[in-house]
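ARCHIVE CARD
Drawer: 12
Card no.: 0347
Subject: one protein chain, sequence and derived structure
Cross-reference: see card 0346
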Amino acid sequence: MTLDPFTEVLMVSRLNPYLSFNGDARQAMEFYKEVFGGTLALNTYGDFGQPEAPNADKIMHGMLETPSGFTLMGADNPPGMESAPGQPFAVSLSGDDDAELTGYWEKLSEGGSVSVPLEKQMWGDVFGMCTDRFGVPWMVNISRPES
């Protein structure tokens, strides 16, 4: 945990499920909001610089935060990346503590496979995807302060 010196807010890392969908993430995430309540934020591929892409209206990232403290994230798979049966999820690690999250990434990816290297992405954060040596898929997102 770190204390943000500018806002004096305690920043913590978060661990939660991240669900993958084949085109119906919006409907699924809205359904989960009906079930659990809370605040739902949905961002499309078009929102992140791909307004002309065929998947521009599909969900690139969705996050539901509930009054009970649950966090559920989900997205539509990008074209050409279909979800494998039995693998409709990943475990998401996110926060702003670069050293902590990079350390987790290094340990999780060691002996496993990396599908997206841990590096800066179009939305400005550092992000990577790997599958650990036990076959569990992981996503790590390190938030970067807005400049």
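Annotation on reverse: The helical segments are 25-36, 98-109. Strands lie at 2-4, 9-11, 14-21, 39-44, 59-65, 71-76, 89-95, 113-120, 126-131, 137-142.
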